[in-house]
Amino acid sequence: MRNIFVPLALAVFLGSGAILYAAGQAPMPADYDEDTYGPWAPVIWVKPVKSVIFEHKIHTVDAGLDCDSCHDDLFAMEAGAAEENDDFTMETLYAGGYCGACHDGATAFASDTRCTACHIGVRGHARIVGSGDGQGSGH
Amino acid sequence: MKIDELEKLPSEDISTLASAERRKFLRLGLVVTGMYLGGTVLSLTSARNSQAAGVVPEIGKYPYSPHYSMVIREKLCIDCELCKEACVKTNHVPAYGYRTTILERRRSLGGDRFETIFMPVLCNHCNRPPCVRVCPTTATWKDEKTGIVVMLPSRCIGCKTCMTACPYNARYFKEETRAVDKCDFCWEAKLSKGETNTACAEACPADVRIFGNMADPESRVFKLVHAPETMVWVLRPETGAVPNIYYINT
């Protein structure tokens, strides 16, 4: 009896924790295939400014792009690789690099418009990731 | 005067008063009463021409020189909060307070689509500051030359009435000094030492905050709010505080 109880309690504890953790974000639908459409979880860049959000779903499922539309020419597959580059700036986007390849005003809305469509800020970052360092929520 | 002579004079009672005279008197009374009623009780006419021309004062009517103000190009704000970081560092703002912050609101684009609007806020350095009016110890006042609403912490008794009076929630109580603290357009940290820009405006990577002298027609702040076809607004104009932080979307 006891042998069953302990793992059961552990499973309930971890399970409810995972559910609570995921409650902040929309759960992934069953028919969403991450191998085809990219990771469900949003990519969040914090450099050079906090914070910019990218969702694969909007670009693959909604806009109909393939993986090789962006990978590996514009973006490396490795998560967070782009923000380590010194040229990951708005200037590069305006010149057609990174997001700017499509976000040029012709294919998709221009990079110098609708700033807050991608820039979620410190507040948005804290909402999704949680303000781990306490700095964001303190001020 | 003798009584028999008085009796010969014409009577002054209402039997001899001409009807027209009586009406004239009555009308005068009504006019006087009506003026008072119309002017104050009923307010049929406004007491003064208030703000009919908009929130930006007419050219040449800036009461201070330099008339420091800030123009905020709201739609460019991305809430990176580098302005807040710079302000905290420059003015030694503790973690529980702020001199400037970014507010956030969501606007419906129809359906389930929304857009986020980030709104930087700070002390509006009002021309008629409600905080100054309520301070019992004159610890805060509007500088006669620059128009900056400044604080003298040593005179502040910490009653926090100014915090309640401020329409912009731009004041906080600083435990370290036991006094209320607020934005002074970096007067103490920078402007009084010969610098010309505030820390927040300097730090902004998106050119959202533009600080300058509104009384100077050559300044960028002046040109921005006086540009053709520009919608300029201020926060909470109904308070009558006449704020000096102008918001535009160009």
Description:
In chain A, 39% of the residues lie in helices and 4% in strands. Chain A is mainly α. Chain A has a single domain, classed as Cytochrome C3, CATH 3.90.10. The radius of gyration of chain A is 19 Å and the shape is elongated. The C terminus of chain A is likely disordered. A 3-stranded mixed sheet of chain B has the order 8-1-9. Chain B has 7 helices and 9 strands; from the N terminus they run ααβαββαββαββαβαβ. Chain B folds into 2 domains: 35 residues; 181 residues, 2-Layer Sandwich (Alpha-Beta Plaits). Helix content of chain B is 24%, strand content 19%. The longest helix of chain B is centred in the first third of the chain and has 23 residues. Chain B is of the alpha+beta class and 250 residues long.
Supply Rg of chain B.
28 Å
The oligomeric state is heterodimer
Beta-strand percentage range of chain B: 15-25%
Mean pLDDT of chain B: 89
**The level-1 CATH class of chain A:** Alpha Beta
Unreliable stretches of chain A (pLDDT < 50, length at least 5) are 133-138
Q: How many individual helices of chain A?
A: 7
